[in-house]
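Structure, all four chains, one model.
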Amino acid sequence: MLKRKAEAADRLFHALADANRRAVIERLTRGPATVSELAAHLGVTVAATVQHLQVLQDSELVRSEKNGRVRTCRIDPAGLRSAEAWLQRQRTAWEHSLDRLGAVLDDRTKESGS
Amino acid sequence: MLKRKAEAADRLFHALADANRRAVIERLTRGPATVSELAAHLGVTVAATVQHLQVLQDSELVRSEKNGRVRTCRIDPAGLRSAEAWLQRQRTAWEHSLDRLGAVLDDRTKESGS
DNA sequence: GGGATAGTCAAGTGGTAGCTTAAGTATCCA
DNA sequence: TGGATACTTAAGCTACCACTTGACTATCCC
């Protein structure tokens, strides 16, 4: 199995697969927030929120820095970009394969046609 | 614990979060394949492959039809498109929020400046 | 018909995810 | 200083996931 290279994508899509983590991202696209604010927004404990934030930071979807006792979280565009890149790569590969199929069908038509 | 409702985005990103399922997608972007071919490609049993395919079909990433005893699988672009759409939505929302921040900073500079 | 092929279904297993509570650390401020 | 605030860490619990094996159905073709 070709798993080594896949780890980043694993983490990335796994991070996006949870509704609460996506809610954090959606919230942060509208501006930075503290851990407590995010916890209130999600309706879970602060501890659970910290765990989600860890996952989001590991996949470069969120960054955060701590000032005094307050941790401020914001979007890290790197993760969003590489997720989009993977999907675009697949879509383009698929479209190319459709093009090749089209070319083959055209050739067949030409051969058998006239 | 609250049972999470399996929303579309949940299913979608969860489907993409598994390396074997992504390998199926990558394989299918290069053209259709049967269940056995996919199983051989992944190096897992046919039964496991069928389970992956079920997940991929539920999230509209893959379609399949059965002719005789052979099931042929192909890419369903709907899933890829809606995953891309979600990510793009977040990225543009984030960029707009940066714009608004920029505007505020400009105003502040104008007010306090000179 | 009957053996091989292609896929489906069900049950069981080890591992992991997401959540909680509880106890800790660091910082703020009256 | 000392109490309140903001976050961190650890342990434990339940549910779910990816995978297997084994039995089964449907189809092909000699």
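The mean pLDDT of chain A is 88.
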